[in-house]
């Protein structure tokens, strides 16, 4: 198998490689090991054939990439989306390596996915797809090896099927093989909302540092799924106004503030935000020119292009999504004095509570939601503060500072372990 290490691609993997190149000059002697971060440790491509409800057989392509395991088992979500491809999964797995290290969790980075539009499958077809995919990757996952979780297009039910399939193969129940499970099956309280909560916690911290008041702040959210909707709710609870929302169905605006609770309710019976009567429909490009203070990209990667960065009016960008900003757009935002809280810390709330879930599963002892939220707040605030201090020390952006912290931790682990066989 030939992987695209050639750096010729323009996708998410290329964005990641550029981010690593930017941090290398800060790593002194550790930069000897930097190539270890420029390739995945292991990448598995699997064929996932399933019998459809109409009796036909369809084949889907699936992946599980373990980017780096120097600091512990792999950790990272499973994406079901029609655009999933190897380069994207490689980048997402690499961002998990950086993310777990920034927050100092004892994990490496991994990611998986299947190229499929889950909305086009029946529930039975989705279950068959999930179980067959799990079976195909079961040789490389496990509670001590690599622990999947939900991502775009997957959820707690899918994690339950993954856990059941893996446990059935192993002959006993192994709850710790995945996180983001239903609470009945060893899932953690607070996990579903954790990523959005983390966006709020890190955003609140940095807003205070740059003198931006949350009460009254105008917030735009792209992607109103798990991450975007929860972050929006918490900002509204803190008296900010969500004035713009965009998802796959279109963009809506209301200068007085969108009723986020009503919008969440609306989405229970509608496929997207389009048609919501509590706001006006706007053109998708207008979303990027809106008069706002805070932008939360919480959809997919590669959304903030240099053209959009030139027009953006926000003072603060909170990267709920993974890799939403292209490197040249990153430069443009920095040049324009717009502060970015990078994905690797901004959306780390999910993996942090996944870590709590894994610990609880290992101990078979479960914590209250209050305890989980408190621990999440403490851990993320500390990590955000470390990143802020590192940025001040190196006179660099928060993204570079986060990468410096993470890469140091990963590469120190690598150098202390040495290169087998020595
Ligand atoms: P989700 O499937 O719940 O929601 C995705 C949202 O993005 C939906 O509102 C969808 O309509 C919107 N969207 C899809 N394509 C779009 C497009 N072309 N333009 C505008 N909007 C579009 O997914 P999620 O779990 O909320 O994840 C969102 C992002 O956050 C992803 O980048 C994911 O990798 C990242 N993330 C998720 C978690 C988690 O715990 N769920 C953790 C860390 C990072």
UniProtKB/TrEMBL annotation:
Catalytic residues in the record: 111 (proton donor)
Annotated NAD(+) binding sites: 195, 226
GO terms of molecular function: glutamate dehydrogenase (NAD+) activity; glutamate dehydrogenase (NADP+) activity; nucleotide binding
Catalyses which reaction(s): L-glutamate + NADP(+) + H2O = 2-oxoglutarate + NH4(+) + NADPH + H(+)
GO-annotated biological processes: L-glutamate catabolic process
InterPro entries: Aminoacid_DH-like_N_sf, Glu/Leu/Phe/Val/Trp_DH, Glu/Leu/Phe/Val/Trp_DH_C, Glu/Leu/Phe/Val/Trp_DH_dimer, Glu/Leu/Phe/Val_DH_AS, Glu_DH, NAD(P)-bd_dom_sf, NAD_bind_Glu_DH
Positions with a binding annotation for substrate: 75, 99, 354
Keywords on record: NAD, Nucleotide-binding, Oxidoreductase
Site (described: Important for catalysis): 151
Residue span(s) of domain Glutamate/phenylalanine/leucine/valine/L-tryptophan dehydrogenase C-terminal: 188-418
Taxonomy, superkingdom: Bacteria
Family: Belongs to the Glu/Leu/Phe/Val dehydrogenases family.
Reported function: Catalyzes the reversible oxidative deamination of glutamate to alpha-ketoglutarate and ammonia.
Protein name: Glutamate dehydrogenase
């Amino acid at each position: 198998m030939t992987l695209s290490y050639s750096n010729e691609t323009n996708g998410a993997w290329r964005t990641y490689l550029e981010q690593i190149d930017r941090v290398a000059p800060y790593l002194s002697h550790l930069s000897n090991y930097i190539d270890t971060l420029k390739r995945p440790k292991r990448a598995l491509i699997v064929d996932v054939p399933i019998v459809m409800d109409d009796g036909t057989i369809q084949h889907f392509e699936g992946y599980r990439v373990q980017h780096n395991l120097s600091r512990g088992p792999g950790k990272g979500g499973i994406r079901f989306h029609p655009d999933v491809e190897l380069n994207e999964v490689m980048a997402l797995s690499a961002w998990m390596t950086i993310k777990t290290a920034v927050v100092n969790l004892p994990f490496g980075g991994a990611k998986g996915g299947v190229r499929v539009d889950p909305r086009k499958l029946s529930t039975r077809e989705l279950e068959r797809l999930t179980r067959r995919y799990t079976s195909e990757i079961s040789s490389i996952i496990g509670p001590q090896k690599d622990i999947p979780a939900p991502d775009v297009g997957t959820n707690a039910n899918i994690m339950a099927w993954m856990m059941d399939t893996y446990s059935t193969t192993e002959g006993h129940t192994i709850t710790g093989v995945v996180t983001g499970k239903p609470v009945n099956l060893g899932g953690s309280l607070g996990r579903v909302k954790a990523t959005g909560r983390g966006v709020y916690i890190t955003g609140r911290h940095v807003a205070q540092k740059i003198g931006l008041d949350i009460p009254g702040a105008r917030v735009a959210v792209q992607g109103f799924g798990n991450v975007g909707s929860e972050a929006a709710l918490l900002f509204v609870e803190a008296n900010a106004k969500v004035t713009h929302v965009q998802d796959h169905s279109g963009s809506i605006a209301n200068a007085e503030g969108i009723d986020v609770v009503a919008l969440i309710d609306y989405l229970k019976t509608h496929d997207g935000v389009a048609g919501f009567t509590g706001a006006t429909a706007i053109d998708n490009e207008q979303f990027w020119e809106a008069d706002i203070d805070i932008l939360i990209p919480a959809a997919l990667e590669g959304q903030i292009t240099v053209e959009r960065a030139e027009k953006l009016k926000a003072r603060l960008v909170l990267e709920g999504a993974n890799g939403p900003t292209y490197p040249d757009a990153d430069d443009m935002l920095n040049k324009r004095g717009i502060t970015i809280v990078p994905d690797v810390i901004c959306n780390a709330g999910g993996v942090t509570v996944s870590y709590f879930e894994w610990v609880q599963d290992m101990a078979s002892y479960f914590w209250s939601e209050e305890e989980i939220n408190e621990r999440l707040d403490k851990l993320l605030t500390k990590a955000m503060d470390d990143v802020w201090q590192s940025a001040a020390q190196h006179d660099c952006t928060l993204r570079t500072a986060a990468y410096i912290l993470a890469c140091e931790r990963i590469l120190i682990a690598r150098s202390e372990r040495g290169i087998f066989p020595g």
